[in-house]
Write a structure and sequence with these properties.
It is a single chain. The chain has helices at 2-27, 53-59, 280-285, 290-294, and strands at residues 31-34, 37-42, 65-68, 79-81, 86-89, 96-98, 106-108, 114-116, 119-121, 131-135, 141-143, 146-150, 153-158, 164-166, 169-172, 184-189, 195-197, 200-202, 206-211, 218-220, 223-225, 229-233, 239-241, 244-246, 250-255, 260-263, 266-268, 272-277, 297-300, 303-304, 312-318, 324-330. It is mainly beta. The protein has a twelve-stranded mixed β-sheet with strand order 1-2-3-5-8-11-14-17-20-23-26-29, with helices on one face. The protein has an eleven-stranded mixed β-sheet with strand order 4-7-10-13-16-19-22-25-28-31-32. Strands 6-9-12-15-18-21-24-27-30 form a nine-stranded parallel β-sheet, with no helix packed on it. A hairpin with a 5-residue loop joins β31 (312-318) and β32.
């Protein structure tokens, strides 16, 4: 009998707790408890919704989602994301974050951040050296955004590993400074094991740039068009495959790179499709002899403007001083362009 009474009291207490929690969530619509964390709402007309994105980020915890409505857009903010959260816009076309031209618009310093569904813009000037989005952490996903108006960098990936940059559209603004008359799309600076895939990058100075030990990255399925350089790289062990590299001044420019695979890309309408250079200093510094240098880039199965019956020569320069002409070859050029579907 005592067991039955005790069980009844426990069930009554549990029912009161559930009822109290439910009432709280109905009253404050900015927070909903889920198995994956809380969802905090920004904009819109829900009771208790935040009016600023940064306020919601500051009040979030690791694992939470900050959902941003588009009917209160644009949001004039410069965001610091220092927690492992999902930051999601309602619609990438209409949920706009407009930052100050003298500051980074979105800075991500925590691991495991997801950013999607926004237009992020900043009409800065080239001399300000600012970026729209800066990542200096690991295991992040930046997907399905429009990043535009960058006078210097669109996405700046610094010392970051195992991040995914996919399905974004990145465009720049004209600055009127010679070949460097536009900002860059994506910069990897000492970033390893990242995946850059399915992005559309156009009207930039450098579409994708990899520098300073940005090794073991995958550049896959992107469309790079109407840039000064489609891809510019100075790194090791990267794979560049199934990209549309079209109507740029330079399709791909390679400086001091080793163990590269450049396969099954479309090179169409570029003024200069591909070029590689090695400096004498670099060859000596890393202990590579000329024989090694000549065989460290694998070109295979790329489409070069038209069907080809013979191997496609790629002009490069070797030491001394990076001016001795040397040719590498795509031995199996594709007979028709690949349907990459970006």
């Amino acid at each position: 009998m005592r067991k039955i009474i005790a069980l009844g009291i426990m069930l009554l207490f549990l029912g009161m707790t559930i009822s109290s929690s439910t009432g709280l969530n109905l009253e404050k619509q900015s927070t909903i408890v889920t198995l994956d964390g809380n969802t905090l709402y920004v904009g819109g007309n829900g009771t208790g919704n935040y009016s600023k994105i940064q306020d919601a980020i500051d009040n979030a915890s690791d694992g939470d989602t900050v959902f941003v409505h588009d009917d209160s857009s644009p949001y004039y903010e410069n965001l610091i994301v220092d927690k492992s959260i999902t930051l999601k816009g309602e619609n990438k076309e209409t949920t706009v974050i407009n930052g100050s031209e003298s500051e980074i618009v979105v800075s991500i310093s925590s691991d495991n951040v997801i950013l999607s569904g926004f237009t992020v813009l900043n009409h800065g000037n080239y001399s300000s050296l600012t970026s729209i989005l800066v990542i200096h952490s690991n295991y992040n996903i930046i997907s399905g955004n429009i990043i535009t108006g960058n006078a210097h960098y669109g996405i700046d990936i610094l010392y970051s590993e195992y991040s995914i940059i996919s399905g974004n559209t990145i465009t720049s603004v004209y600055t009127g400074i010679g070949l460097y008359n536009k900002g860059d799309g994506i910069l990897l600076f000492n970033g390893e094991n990242n995946n850059i895939s399915g992005n559309i990058i156009k009207d930039c100075s450098m579409g994708i740039e990899l520098i300073w030990f940005s090794n073991n990255n995958s550049i896959f399925g992107n469309t790079l068009t109407n840039n000064t350089w489609g891809i510019s790289t100075k790194s090791i062990n990267d794979v560049i495959s199934l990209n549309n590299i079209s109507y740029n001044f330079y399709g791909i420019s390679i400086l001091n790179c080793f163990n590269y695979k450049i396969t099954r890309n479309n090179f169409i309408g570029n003024n200069w499709s591909a070029h590689f250079t090695y400096s004498l200093f670099f060859a000596y510094q890393f202990g590579h002899v000329l024989k090694d240098i000549r065989s460290t880039i694998k070109w295979d199965g790329n489409y070069w403007n038209r069907p080809r019956s013979f191997p496609k020569p790629i002009l490069g320069e070797l030491p001394p001083y990076g001016i001795v002409p040397w040719f590498q070859f795509d031995l199996h050029p594709a007979q028709e362009p690949y349907d990459i579907g970006v």
